[in-house]
Amino acid sequence: MTAPTSKRPRLPVIDIARGVAIVAMAIYHLCWDLSYFRFIPVDVGYDPGWVLFARSILFSFMVLVGIGLVLAHGEGVRWRGFRRRLAFIAGGAALITLGTWLTFPESFVYFGVLHAIALFSLIALPFVFTPLWLTGLVGALAVALPFFFSDPLYDQKWFSWIGFWVVPPPTNDLVPVFPWFGVTLFGVVLARLLRGSALEDRLAAIRPRHVAARALGWMGRWALVIYLVHQPLLLAVIAPLGMALGSQEAGRELDFLSSCQASCEATGTTAALCATYCQCGLEGIARDDLWEPVFTGLVSAEEQRKLDANNRQCSALIYPELEDAPAVE
């Protein structure tokens, strides 16, 4: 794996593909932010269509990582450029971890897209030079293993990045080694099949002339920078607007009241009494600032004590003859 003496021509279509992927990612994050702050009714993080969209974007990113490794280092590793790029990606990953830990401490990103790209770039590099069948076999095994093996040990954050969990831990972004490293190796295989072929020559001859194609190509060349800055810029606009309009708070209150009312009436309590009970519960949650544990399910012992006390108080409100009435929910 020595440095090459000549450089192969750049493939503009790969830059355009990266540009399309980063635009799709920005659209997803925009809608996720709008959903989080209740500007749109759909829950982007759990809606099946949006989940499929997110997985498709991630698939394209991981394939392009493998393709990029072969295009950049297929004739010998350019160590200086490789180390510089790896340091940039790892630094960006660290910034994302720090930023999300400060913003969403209960669900911060500890092994997201950039973390995975940094690690996969490192461990996939040898497969640029191994026999093609071996690269493909390891990739297929990496993709298949999570379908046949899982263990609660990997539910813990310290091990979840490997990917064999039963229940994934709470985090806003998690791209585990299995199966996504295998997808990166598929990109390596695809690019190695392409290199030296007539198709590569035809792709290299393509020079996009349309302004949209050139814009996407430019975005593809700066995809990592755009990935780092686009979400902070989106949040800088949407978060203050959401807070000013009260959209997130109003949406959370409606979700809570709807869920509480349904749960309460399921116990046989009348709708009127349930409405009183749920309004009391809403006031208690707001008073004790318990929105985060209620919606994430991550409740400390002290927060659980406050929730239990509030439930008892609200139950006593609708059953005044029972001072120690059990919680309705």
From TrEMBL:
KW Transferase (keyword) present: yes
EC category: transferase
Span of domain Heparan-alpha-glucosaminide N-acetyltransferase catalytic: 10-232
Molecular function, one GO term: heparan-alpha-glucosaminide N-acetyltransferase activity
Catalytic activity, EC: 2.3.1.78
Alphabetically ordered keywords of this record: Acyltransferase, Membrane, Transferase, Transmembrane, Transmembrane helix
TM region positions: 50-74, 86-102, 108-125, 132-154, 174-194, 215-239
Pfam families cross-referenced by the UniProt entry: HGSNAT_cat
Protein name: Heparan-alpha-glucosaminide N-acetyltransferase
Origin species: Devosia honganensis
Source lineage: Bacteria, Pseudomonadati, Pseudomonadota, Alphaproteobacteria, Hyphomicrobiales
